[in-house]
Write a structure and sequence with these properties.
six-stranded antiparallel sheet; 8 helices; alpha+beta; 31% helix; nine-stranded mixed sheet; binds 4'-deoxy-4'-aminopyridoxal-5'-phosphate; D-amino Acid Aminotransferase, Chain A, domain 1; 2 domains; D-amino Acid Aminotransferase, Chain A, domain 2
Amino acid sequence: MGHFVYLNDGVVPAAEAKVSVFDHGFLYGDGIYETMRVYDGVVFLLDEHLQRLCRSASLIGLDVPKDIPGIKRALYETLRANGLRNAYVRLTVSRGYGQIGLDPGLCKEPTFVIIANEFKPYPSALYENGISLIIASTRRNLKEALDPQIKSLNFLNNILAKIEAQRADAYEAVLLNAAGHLTEGTISNLFFVKEGVLCTPAVECGILDGITRALVVGLAVRSGIELREGEFLPGDLYGASEVFVTNTTMEIMPVSRVDAARFTVGHVAGLLHTQYRHEVNGYVSEKKGEGPSLWQ
Ligand code: PMP
């Protein structure tokens, strides 16, 4: 754990970073968050993450208590305080302290927290051999009930699927939507290759439109890989030639098994991961090339 946490107005020792039991984030899961990856001192795709944070905030009628430059300063201040250059950062904004009751008006000030920890790479064996997935019996939240595009603190839907995965000795669970179409993992987006076409469930299926997913889609298109975003069934996944999942921390993680179906780690995931790394390196040098900056 990092030694310093950003809480509301500044960096404090982690042991002193306390939030009230009356915080509506704690009481009701009323809040939002983003997880970002830091490579060599640079927060990757920071603007995209902050844009999504603002979208989540607006979808729940929450005012983020800092503007974008203020959030960026707070992020880099937290990284500097912890001496971190390769890290993951979680930014959380909850509705804040208030009396019991659902009315957001009970909370006068949102709670703003940044936690930064050293990034511990996933074991290389996972990238070499792939992870195992199950298709969970827990369905993804209906987007008309709780839109998965809101990256909210209310994660029970995903946690229930994760528990199913753990019980089945699997690493990640894929959730279907109410119509039985594939959606996404508990913390990742899903891709598979079928008859040479790279397939991924469309945003309309009720998923979080992952920032890694968007980058991977862009890389695939640029590489001339045929791409299909749409509605897919479990059978499409079982019959794939290659499967992988994406997120900010895993980047592109190959899958070796979905329920009883087995897959070998394929070249599409490998190719895209090489390009992904290239993209990261380009981004980091570009940001550093912009001159005196927040991370120096
Ligand atoms: N879906 C869900 C439900 C997630 O929690 C995450 C992780 N934020 C993702 C997809 C992947 O999103 P990203 O690529 O932006 O990390």
